Description:
Two copies of one chain form a homodimer.
Chain A: E1 7-12, H1 20-35, E2 39-44, H2 50-61, H3 67-91, E3 96-99, E4 106-108, E5 117-120, H4 123-130, E6 134-138, E7 141-143, E8 149-151, H5 156-168, E9 172-177, E10 198-200, H6 201-206, H7 217-226, E11 230-234, E12 242-245, E13 258-262, E14 265-274, H8 279-289, E15 297-299, E16 306-314, H9 318-332, E17 336-340, E18 343-349, H10 358-369, E19 376-380, E20 383-389, H11 393-403
Parallel strand pairs in A: 1-2, 1-9, 2-6, 3-6, 9-11, 10-12
Antiparallel strand pairs in A: 4-5, 7-8, 11-12, 13-18, 14-16, 14-17, 15-16, 18-20, 19-20
Helix pairs in contact in A: 1-3, 2-3, 5-7, 8-9, 10-11
Amino acid sequence: MDSSAPIVVQKFGGTSVADTERIRAVADHVVRTVRHGERPVVVVSAMGKETDDLLRAARDVAASPPGREMDMLVTAGERKAMALVCMAINDLGVPSESFTGSQAGFLTDGTHTDARILDVRPDRIRAAIEAGRVPVVGGAQGVSDTNDVTFLGRGGSDTTAVALAHALGARSCELYTDVSGVFTTDPRVVSEARRMDRISFDELLEMTANGCPKPAMRSVEFARTHGVDLHIRSAFTWEQGTWVSKEEEFMEQAIVSAVVHDTDEAKVTILGVPDRPGIAAGLFRSLADAAVNVDMIVQNTSADGHTDISFTVPHGDLAVAIPVCERVASEVGATRVTTDDGIARVSVVGAGMRSHPGVAATVFETLAGNGINIEMISTSAIRISCVVRQDQVEQAVQHLHDAFSLADGPKLVD
Amino acid sequence: MDSSAPIVVQKFGGTSVADTERIRAVADHVVRTVRHGERPVVVVSAMGKETDDLLRAARDVAASPPGREMDMLVTAGERKAMALVCMAINDLGVPSESFTGSQAGFLTDGTHTDARILDVRPDRIRAAIEAGRVPVVGGAQGVSDTNDVTFLGRGGSDTTAVALAHALGARSCELYTDVSGVFTTDPRVVSEARRMDRISFDELLEMTANGCPKPAMRSVEFARTHGVDLHIRSAFTWEQGTWVSKEEEFMEQAIVSAVVHDTDEAKVTILGVPDRPGIAAGLFRSLADAAVNVDMIVQNTSADGHTDISFTVPHGDLAVAIPVCERVASEVGATRVTTDDGIARVSVVGAGMRSHPGVAATVFETLAGNGINIEMISTSAIRISCVVRQDQVEQAVQHLHDAFSLADGPKLVD
């Protein structure tokens, strides 16, 4: 390999390495990258559902397994995947070497099952690259200062890839997924959905939705902080995917980039909450302690000293959330708790909307004009989200995609 | 745990940790050992057939996977098992910590897939023991001086256990198997078969046979060289198993300790081989190069300048052995090659027969007197093996077990 060739980190998730056939396809892709004049550094997750299987085995043998042992256990998953990917690359005639997180120089704190990276010292990775070998690194792994194996948590392979790209000064970090990039909306709902060439880190962070690639938030934040350009693409096509980079690098800026939706949430409402300071804080602290993932939160202006608090949670968290809410409601003297799992969330996302307050009005008019009732509204600087009935959400997506002419390409800030 | 309590290494093979239920049973056994006043150090193999599964995956992705990557791959197996065993021990209220071969201080050469131990520096294991924690070590693993993961080969967990017992000055090394010790013969064939209390390393090394525990030969040799007492026993009973130690420690010495048999071999004969120096050497070098495991070799005295060479191989190696033999036979001008897979081997083993040449005569008389024809004979200082028809081997075992009165306990050297 040409020693001046650009270094590119390529991260393959569990789906991309789910079986030996896919592993051979990944190896083929990596080898083509080499032939194409780049120097790839590969990061892999565990195969398919292997991490889930390991966690199930742990639950079978112990009620509360120590974190240190959980990390020893789950890192067996990436170890297997990385060795197999490496063998498959070698088999295609390109020398390759696999590295654990420790061997790759990932020094972390000792917070087992959710360790933080303290430093990346990829000396062995650099040596392998310079010797013309393709390094294959186990994702989400590190080593603590007591020489114990640590795991960065679910989705940690994205973080490994971005941190390694930064430490190596790689030209970019490619995140391979089963879709070929980030689309203006879910292509399964709107056939005219268009793959975007570029979006900003902030936009990607707002895009947790159906049919949308979901790099771990932590890795996107790391990339934003350190200016590591991400390239979200498919391993099974040579098309360009979607580049994610800092906003100021954009030549042109869309007002609205994408319409996304999420049907995996339910709404919880606590009615008649006395309007005293600290009640909301107490409620959401209790939910956080119960590991409930709260998404949108809406509290209306108080009327007659009482208010209603609504929020959305993933369906899977509802059973845990309800008793917590009922306990808090009873403690503070609220009227009652209602839940609704027939809702969905639709959001428009775009960095350009910061300077275009009219976007919210267009969203509300579009939905109202098509007979779609809005149950909750929540906004950030670059996102407007509405909760609507679940059976109307696909209509909502289609109408909003049309209203902002997203199929035609970026509508620029003037 | 009492800091003066004896240290005992306990090695559990793949069958003992085949699923999460068995892993909990192993943990229970280890915890009882602690309550019993000993300080166990646990060594585990990969779960059940996991190593085979990993090797199959490797073959699926690559024609000739590099040894370094094979070792990275297969060590994922023990890693998983050791973390789960460790969790299960913790779950029973006894603190435990798992260690890779590298963390346990196994320094090896760089011969991947079949590395040799150069040194064992179990500092972290000692620290864990002194802190009252049960160390659980991944078997067959090490690290080379280039910081690469190495594997000691199949059966390497026995070697790990014995080497660790030696390095820690353990009182003994317990090898857990699915039988409760070493028997005077296969209990499935002879109901009066008796579990032996003690045998010598040399005797155990001669006992590769059906129904007999088979610690890796290398580990038994290591134990013999370094005087590590082995205790072969079952994890699922508190009975004593069979102790294996140096001969001079015996109070009494049996002439014949056991009758063992093996039905997994086939016989190959090359007829009419010209009696020139170097022909046998060339044949067995060619077979070794083809990775054929040759067991018994018999060459008759030459008559009229030609001889016959016979040897036995495992059934699984026969298909590879035949073309090699036919090529060599044609090169040297031998008459022809015949094979016979209807044979079996029966052996009597005993350290005391060294000084009792009459044993061979008793063996031959017993077989002949019961109408069992002997097709091949091979002897060592402490073993006499005969090849007979496979359908007569169980009779042979029964008659020999009777002839030496093995059900009654050791027959002593007078």
